[in-house]
Structure formats: structure tokens, C-alpha cells
Fold this protein.
Amino acid sequence: MEATDHSSAKEDRVLASLNGSIHNRSVFKLANGVDEPTPVSATTIRGRSYASPIEIDATMEEVAGDLPAEVWQMLSLDAQSSAASETEGTDEFAESQKQQESRDRVKPRRSGIVYDVRMRYHSELAMAVKNQDFHPEDPRRIFHIYRELCKSGLVEDSSVSTEPLVEHPLRKINISAATKEEVLHSCRYRNILTDIEAMTDEEIMFLEHRYDSIYLNQSTFGAARLSAGGAIALCRAVMRREVKNGMAVIRPPGHHAECNRPMGFCIFDNVSIAAKVCQADFKDACRKVLIFDWDVHHGNGIQQAFYQDPNVLYISVHVHQDGKFYPAGNYGNYDHCGGSAGLG
């Protein structure tokens, strides 16, 4: 009883301090959790009427200087609570998220992983001719990464490791090859790669010399479509809340590939393709995208793909050396910050 009396006395002081500026006790709650009855349907602040606590919250700064700290705190908290309640009641996407969060509390979402052994079929023909040991972008590279994840108990794959699993291992995400339409989001040389499936080894090695730091074989096109498809599958799984985040152990890599040519070991610009597919699939839910590229080399392909796009922020942390470091030139300098609508 003493606590209730004390709270009522405090409210009386709060209300008295308003000096008639606000005439609606619906924005206050008693200490015992019971709402005060609402005497009127609108709230008046400095002679202006506002229909709901959401609008009250938008005008708080106008009256903050005239109100005691305890009044300001009570108004802010209650208006925010009411705004959240009203938004959840009308927004289907928010309601869907709320239901998913409820399920997550019962069974937490795991991190995801994308991997497909067929991506290893892309390899350098010249290695067999010259009897070389390895290439920097070697097919075994992604397998070594995948194997270490399995040995650490993060991925269940008895063909690779029988180590005990962690409590929440990575969830495997099934992938399919990127379609022609998906690849064309950022690539205009697809037909050239389609042709190599029927070429001889000698014809393919001759074709390689048209490009900068690229090797090809008859399986390159299929492996590159799987690599882009893996990036797409992972991003879609995150957007659908099937996983909370994830890693794509994929190859060939992508951030050097430009819209009109493959280069720098990269065939298709995987990340750019995945970003554009998700923007098309999920509309406003994926309208703004941040791509953070942490690599010793500048991701010229991603920068080119979104240089004039106001909805995608691309950040690359790389070695520049006054334009002497690969891929060379001034395009990766600090002063290249977008163009047209993408400037900034």
C-alpha cells in the first residue's frame, strides 16, 4: 500500500508540473502496471492536438526544455512503447519477424555454410602440360578450408571427418547453378564461357591469353555458375531467416570479374550477382546493401557493378601502392567514391 501511495503522489507531482501544457493522462501508467483510463482521444501539447502517442514522440524535442526530467522520461518511454505496439499490429513483415523470433527462442537459428565439390573441377590445363605443382587459386584450396571446418566439429560430413560435433554445427545450404538471368545481372560475356565446354585443351589455352590472369578448362563454366549460385543461396537463406549468417566456401572467386571480362582468377562477380538477385527477390526488405571487401587486392569488379548505385555501399580494404598493386590503376584510390546517384 505504501508503494502505491508513493507512486500516486509522484504522478500527482508530475501532472502538476505540466501546468496544463498536456491534457491527457493516457500517456502515463501506474506503478502496479494498470493503465490510467483515457479521458480524451487526442493529446494537446502547446495548443496543438496529436492523435496518438506516435505523433507525441515526434514532437518531444519541442517541449523537452520545458519539462522536468522525470516527465520527459515517462513520456518518451510510453510513446515508444505505444508506437511499437501500433506498428506491429499493422505491419505483416514485423509480425512475421516476431513469430520467427519466438521460434528462435525454442530452436536458435544456426549459421550456414555453402560448399559443393563440383566447384573443384575448374582447374588449370597448363599445370598438366608443364607438370607444375600448384596455382595460387588451386582447386584444393576450398577443400582444405572445408576439411578444417569438419575437423573442428563445425560441419557434419563423415566422408571428411568423424570428429564430434559442436552443439550448434553449421547448417548446410543446398545450392544450384546460377541461371542465365541471374548471371546476366552483372556479366555480359556468358556466351564465351558456354563455348569452352566443346573446345579442345589447346583452343582453351589459346583463349586464356585474351584475358588478365585467367585460366580455363571445360568445366569452368559449370563451376563458375555453382560459385555464383552458392553466393545467391546463402544470401537468400539469410534473408528468409533460415540461418542467422553464414559462409560461402566457393570458387572460382569473383571480386575482380568486371561486367565485360573475367580477370584476376575471377570468372563471375559472385557477390554482386547475389546482391542484385536478393534486391530483386526481396524488394524493400533488401533495398539497402553494404558490401565490405577485406582483401589484399581491390575488388574492382564489385566497385564497377555499384559505382552509380545509391542503394549499395561498397567498402574495400586493400593495398594500393599508388596504383601499382594488382589490379593496378587509380580506380582503387581513396578518392573514387561513386558517381552520379552513387556518389558518397
